[in-house]
Give the backbone structure.
Amino acid sequence: MDVKQVVNALELIEFFATHRRPATLAEISKHFGWPRSSTFNLLGTLANRGYLYEPRAREGVYPSPRWQQLIDAIERAAPLPPSLRTLLEALSKRTQETAVLGAISGGQALFIDAVESPHAVRYSAAPGKLVPLHVTATGRALLSQLSDADRATLLRKAVFERYTPTTLMSVEAVEIEIARSIQRGWFEGAAEFTADLGGVALPLQVGQRQFALLVGGPMFRIQPRREELARIMREEIAAHLPDAGLQPKNQ
């Protein structure tokens, strides 16, 4: 369950990222349909903590550099290797499809970074996107790296909603597909979450961190190339991350 005040604060930051200019209390209240009193309290709290300021008096507020300072500090503590971005760029260029790096976030897979296909018809995968673990190739590649006990805990909490006719609808079906994928050497997404979209994913361990690497696109382009895409992914991982682990854990 989302906490309303936190959601409002995040939506406010996304608003500024989109509009890229100061905004007044009245503008923000009208844009979101928030009561003026609630908007005043939110803006006041953020301003008092140093997260908003007025570039010009009475002409609206804007996020302060404090946000960037926090982000920089977080990134310095656990930076993503630059080679991961280079890997995504190389994969997208070589396959002409969208390349995505994912990680577990709660009970979902979070897209950490992505390089989109140059095709007009493509898999759109913006960083920050969340998808279910159990019905996507990315998610199952992540689940495969967990111990049996940890995976069982996450799958017990999964909501088995039928997104498309091919959606897996039970823990048993997910476990069977994970076992089949481990034996095959790559994970397949076959329009289970989004109709007509497919992908090939590999589990990827960089140091102590567990990721999934996905190449995705329309089913009509992905399905005939599944084995080729898996081979290309392994080749590019070997070239850009020679010390990365590819073998899922099943213990």
Q: What stands out?
A: The radius of gyration is 21 Å.
